[in-house]
Specification:
three-stranded antiparallel sheet; 9 helices; 294 residues; alpha+beta
Length: 294
């Protein structure tokens, strides 16, 4: 589950419990991944149903259901369980009311009401993703709350089959990812503003991996050095070949100070263009990003 992010269903487990040694019991367990905002597995969710055939099972079953509710009602995500054949919602955790802004009773009464609350631009996409209940799905969409606020959610579902292999239920976790989406939007805005600022200031952006000896330039850097990206291979030697020889010792000394933390890498130097002419390139202010291997 952690390696591949895949759901593992209906694993039969046989054993004893510390409270009842010598009494053999059986359980059916299903395991599903809990994913982070970037889609990577960060934990495992488990549903365990005891299948031991014995008399007097009503009381243990009630206790098991109570423990399940205690867990489901504390988590921040919406846990939901549906009856596929009867198209009924068996359970939805209280987090639904916080994220959807609607009561749990409303979705019990009308199982499709949660879809109707999805933003109109996302409804068809969500319906298409949810169309096949027999396969695990992941969908991100917006929910329009009654107060007019929009919430982004990540909805993950997985199927539950009986012993005969027939699909009987569908379970899932729905996570509020509004904060992550807002942060991503803000980052995109900042990136675009930085691009405009760099372009207006006639600046280039570069990164030098001193361990792998790999140099990375943006398009503006090639313009500043009057080079064509398709004609050259970026390297430390390339950069040294275009810096005026009289300025190289100062550049090397400044680099060593930057590496030892004595000073930021800020240098004014001259560049010799491929046609032999010279360009005064000043105002370079950069901090080295050193990648260290262990």
């Amino acid at each position: 589950v952690l390696q591949n992010g895949e759901t593992v269903m209906n694993v039969d487990i046989v054993g004893e419990t510390p409270k009842q040694p010598g009494v053999v019991r059986t359980w059916s367990s299903s395991f599903f991944p809990l994913l982070s905002s970037d889609g990577q597995p960060m934990g495992i969710g488990i549903i365990v149903i005891e299948t031991t055939e014995r008399g007097g099972a009503e009381q243990p079953l009630q206790a098991s259901e109570e423990k399940f509710r205690q867990v489901a009602e504390k988590i921040q995500e919406v846990f939901w369980l549906t009856d596929v054949e009867n198209q009924e919602v068996i359970y939805v955790s209280p987090a639904y009311e916080r994220i959807w802004g609607r009561s749990c009773d409303s979705v019990y009464a009308n199982p499709t009401s949660f879809i109707e609350a999805i933003h109109s631009d996302d409804q068809q996409y969500a319906r298409d993703i949810m169309a096949d209940a027999a396969v695990p799905t992941t969908a991100e969409y917006r929910v329009l709350c009654p107060d007019g606020n929009l919430r982004w959610v990540c909805d993950r579902s997985f199927p539950i089959f009986n012993e005969a292999g027939h699909l009987i239920r569908q379970a899932g976790l729905t996570q509020d990812i509004t904060a992550q989406k807002q942060a991503a939007t803000q980052l995109q805005d900042l990136t675009e503003r930085l691009g405009l600022a760099v372009q207006s200031a006639n600046m280039g952006i570069w990164e030098w991996d001193l361990v792998a000896h790999h140099l990375c330039w943006d398009e503006r850097m090639f313009t500043l050095y009057n080079l064509c990206a398709a004609d050259v291979s970026l390297s430390e030697d390339l950069w040294r070949s275009v810096v005026h020889p009289e300025d190289l010792p100062v550049a090397d000394a400044m680099l060593q100070k930057a590496l030892t933390g004595e000073a930021d890498y800020q240098l004014e130097f001259r560049v010799i263009w491929p046609d032999g002419t010279r360009s005064e390139t000043d105002g370079f202010d950069a901090r080295r990003k050193v990648l260290l291997s262990r």
